[in-house]
Amino acid sequence: MALTSSVFISYSSKDKNFASRLATDLKSKGLNVWFDQWEFKVGDSLIKKLGAAIKAHDYLIVVLSNSSVKSEWVMKELSTGLVKELKERRVVVLPVVIEDCDIPTLLSDKVYADFRRNYSSGLNRLIDAFPGQLFPSGISVQGRKELSTNISLNNVTNTNVIDTIAKMPK
Questions:
Q1: What values do phi and psi take at 100, rounded to 5?
Q2: pLDDT tens, 31-82?
Q3: pLDDT tens-place string over residues 125-163
Q4: How far is CA 38 from CA 27, 46, 94, 140, in A?
Q5: Which residue in 39, 72, 77, 85 is the catalytic one?
Q6: Is 77 a catalytic site residue?
Q7: Cα–Cα distance, 105 to 51 (Å, whole number)
Q8: Whole-angstrom Cα distance, residue 105 to residue 136?
Q9: Which residues contact 63 (CB under 8 A, 6 or more apart)?
Q10: What would the DSSP string read from start to end of the chain?
Q11: Domains and CATH numbers, the chain
């Protein structure tokens, strides 16, 4: 059975086009995505809904740009994610860099997904952060990593790859 990771995307409104594309791509990969443009209804309390959403989701993806590192909302969401990370003693905050900017000090030691030069590479790097997640191909992130080190993909069909993963020793 597939594990479904859930993510909250924190971003500056000036980066809305990037965030929307990212949310759509992550959702298409089978992740449960909380994206404000899809969630807010007229009359909703921003503070209540944002706080509850960050607490309810496994991960907080923070989109880092010149605009977002200056945004009070993004920094508050980031702080909430970092507190959750400390309390739960696990990785919660997943930084995504979309342009050269001043990385917040509290994120300076974290590895980030770099979208600055190549969107697909950044997306693949980000997807690797979801352990055990099954994606539409049926191959888990762990399975993809094992494939690259344990078997050759020359002349192998997708069905054979999936069968090979299923038979791998655990």
A1: -60, 130
A2: 888 786 655 566 655 666 667 777 878 899 999 999 999 999 899 989 999 9
A3: 999 888 765 454 444 444 444 444 433 333 333 334 344
A4: 12, 13, 21, 27
A5: 77
A6: yes
A7: 22
A8: 36
A9: 9, 10, 11, 12, 15, 18, 19, 22, 74, 96, 98
A10: --B--EEEEE--GGGHHHHHHHHHHHHHTT-EEE-HHHH--TT--HHHHHHHHHHHSSEEEEEESTTGGG-HHHHHHHHHHHHHHHHHTS--EEEEE-S-----GGGTTS--EE-SS-HHHHHHHHHTTSTTBBPTTS-BHHHHHHHHHH---TT--HHHHHHHHHHS--
A11: 6-133 (3.40.50.10140), 137-170 (no CATH)
Determine the residue type at 166.
A
Q: Look up the pTM and report it.
A: 0.73
CA atoms within 13 A on the CB side of 140: 17
